Amino acid sequence: MDKEKWKQHLSEIYSCKKCALHETKTNYVVGKGNPSAKIMLVGEAPGKWEDIKGEPFVGRAGKFLDSLLQEIGLTLNEVFITNILKCRPPNNRDPSEEEVVKCTPHLDKEISLINPVIIAALGRHSMKFLFKKYNIPYEPISKIHGKHFPIHSLLGRKYLVALYHPAVALYNPGMKEVLKKDFQAIKKLV
Ligand code: URA
User: Fold this and answer.
1) Is the pTM of the predicted complex or chain greater than 0.90?
2) Cβ-proximal residues to 150 (8 Å cutoff; 6+ apart), any chain
3) pLDDT tens across 149-171, in order?
């Protein structure tokens, strides 16, 4: 990891005004964990608590994500956790296409600087963006959750893993076991 480039990347996020979300957010939410990790998890967008604290996945979905990672023996030092959007959409609405287009150059930069071996897409917004980025035919999450797909890269073997967003288990507790089982896909690739 080139520290200067990383600092530059963070300052680009902290000064971003490319979409209107910077006007309504409290804090920019940059990724957390280890920027030299081999595993990257990509969520959707900051929610209320992430916006207040300036850190991804610190609310209820974040607590569940922590437990999913713990179950497969991973600590925050072994992963990097980030989002498609770096600012909270008001009332946690879905990201708009325009916001995704304007914000994802930050994610592209994160991916190229971190160069992870495994990228786990959490939820359909993240899947939609990442499947398109890597030219993998997109299928409904209900069909491909827990599966991994090779990413064709000049930088060696890489995989994209499709996972449900941890927040689904907050509304549908039956999904907890599905997510636990699907997270094993990451463990198998490590
Ligand atoms: N949901 C997300 O997708 N990202 C967060 O940071 C928190 C909740």
Assistant:
1) yes
2) 157, 158, 159
3) 999 888 788 999 999 999 999 99
